[in-house]
Amino acid sequence: MTIENGSAFLLKVGDDGAPPTYQTVAGLRTTQLSVNGEGVNVTTKDSGGWRELLSGAGVRSVSVSAAGIFTGSDAELRLRSHALAGTIDDYELSVESGERMRGRFLVTRLDYAGDYNGERNYTLNLESSGAVVSL
After folding, report:
1. pLDDT per residue over 78-124, tens digit each?
2. CB 3.0 to 4.6 Å from 103: which of 68, 109, 125, 132, for a disulfide?
3. Helices (H), the chain
4. How many CA atoms within 13 Å lie on the side-chain side of 53?
5. How far, CA to CA in Å, does 127 sit from each of 34, 104, 105?
6. CA neighbours within 13 Å on the CB side: how many for 1?
7. Domains of the chain
């Protein structure tokens, strides 16, 4: 197994088309993906003191965190408009090996910051709404 380049971990936003066309969010320096699952506890007195969870049950979600340098790209402006409106859109995450995940996400946080004589940067958080599929 080879080591994958972190800069090849891309976040893309859809264009509201059917099917959507995805555009890469430029300027991202860090991106993190978390797959979360809350199992349904089915522990009984016969479990021998160990917790047991029901397979396939419970709530699953995907969270994305990213940070980058603001470039003013169309994809960044689209993210901002969704954050301000509280709307959900199609997103795609891809990695160097060609793996992709697609789903609908809500921008739950968008922060801008900048230093005098420095670049403007931003951080964002996305939370899945509905199924996220691996392609």
Report:
1. 999 999 999 999 999 988 788 899 999 999 999 999 888 888 899 99
2. 132
3. 74-85
4. 9
5. 10, 8, 5
6. 1
7. 6-134 (4.10.410)
